Amino acid sequence: MGIRGVRGLPRERQLGELAREAVPEGDGRRLGGGHSSTIRRGWRAVEDGRVDPRFVLHDHRRPSPHFDLRLEEDGVLRSWAVPKGLPDDTAHDRLAIAVDDHDIEHVDFEDEHKSIADDGTWEEHDRDERRMVFSLHGRTGVRRYALIHTGGTQWLLHLTREQPDRTR
């Protein structure tokens, strides 16, 4: 399965409790169950009039602590559950489990069990069927990662040795 093929996985193939989460309805201003969300605008214009795609890193506290990395692409958020969070050094890769794509409104979603740990825009540097290299332009700077498909829904998230200037 290539990186563009992570959507539509049957519920029984997802990572148990990590994949069971509230998903916002409507325009993201009011969420199902009466929860409200904070609306953020994470878009950054570029020279040719396009806007860079957004990313969000959700910090889940229930049912078990983990993070969700979501990258905007083709009108949805491609999503991976990352049990131990993003890697902070090049020697320690992290497991990333592909889960169902989420509606774009989910980029702003927060509730009592989920908060936004980081958000911003992302850019792709290289991609093939097995690997994607990309940078996250987050709140504290820019970090470059590689997502490497290892089979089924499992991926490795790797912090690359070559890093952009963090002050950009």
Overall description:
It is a single chain. The protein has 168 residues and is mostly beta strands. The chain has one domain (48-168). The protein is 0% helix and 42% strand. It is built from no helices and eight strands. It has strands at 54-60, 66-73, 76-82, 94-103, 114-127, 131-138, 141-151, 154-159. It has an eight-stranded antiparallel β-barrel. A hairpin with a 5-residue loop joins β1 and β2 (66-73). It is globular, with a radius of gyration of 15 Å. It starts with 53 loop residues before the first strand and ends in a 9-residue tail after the last strand. The model is unreliable at 1-47 (pLDDT under 50). InterPro entries: LigD_PE_domain. Residues 58-148 form the DNA ligase D 3'-phosphoesterase domain.
Mind sketching the topology for me?
Blueprint: E1 54-60, E2 66-73, E3 76-82, E4 94-103, E5 114-127, E6 131-138, E7 141-151, E8 154-159
Antiparallel strand pairs: 1-2, 1-5, 2-3, 3-4, 4-8, 5-6, 6-7, 7-8
Helical/strand content category? mainly beta
Read across the widest sheet, the strand sequence of neighbours is 1-2-3-4-8-7-6-5
Quick one: overall form? globular
Beta strands, count: 8
Query: Counting H and I runs of at least 4 residues, what is the number of helices?
Result: 0
Report the helical percentage: under 10%
H/E element sequence:
EEEEEEEE
Integer tally of domains: 1
**Span of the ends, CA to CA:** 34 Å
